[in-house]
Amino acid sequence: MLYIVPKNSPSEQPIVDELTMKMVAALRKASESHIQSYGFHTCVCGARSDGTDWILPHGTRTNSLCVHYLAYHRAEVEAGELWAVEGLSDGREYPTSDELHGWPPLRDRHGRRVGAAPEIDRRRERYDARDAALSRRLVRMLWPFGARVRGAR
């Protein structure tokens, strides 16, 4: 399922909707295949998969970029694949940055990036910065409530 080879650049923003969240839930419940793939998949935008095929709860095989393909390359996913994702019944879960953008960039032992920054990393950085800003706002919003609860003891 969702073994595609996108030819176009990813969308500017990920599509995180019911289909994407169904795929996330199914992938999180998947088990590792006993067959290792030959290395990892690399998307046209630079997103990398892990080196393992995954077996979804209903028995279909996929790879770790399945969420990325739905979120960033939806226009290139065939209708039959979208229909198959629609039929997943493993719940709905919000994706992590790694699930959306593939495995983190390769780094050397000093923490420096190895190779050029792929296109998807700019989207990862923007997504992570937005997520961090949202978390900070949420903490500031809830902080007064937490202080009142702690003071009430």
In words, what does this structure look like?
The model has no long low-confidence stretch (mean pLDDT 84). The chain has one domain. The longest helix is centred in the C-terminal third of the chain and has 33 residues, at 119-151. The protein has a three-stranded antiparallel sheet, with no helix packed on it. Helix 1 (18-28) packs antiparallel against helix 2. It has 153 residues and is mostly helical. The chain has five helices and three strands. It has helices spanning 18-28, 66-72, 79-86, 97-101, 119-151; strands at 31-36, 52-55, 61-62.
Give a topology summary.
Elements lengths: L17 H11 L2 E6 L15 E4 L5 E2 L3 H7 L6 H8 L10 H5 L17 H33 L2
Antiparallel strand pairs: 1-2, 2-3
Q: Can you give keywords for this protein?
A:
three-stranded antiparallel β-sheet, 5 helices, 153 residues, mainly alpha, 8% strand, single chain
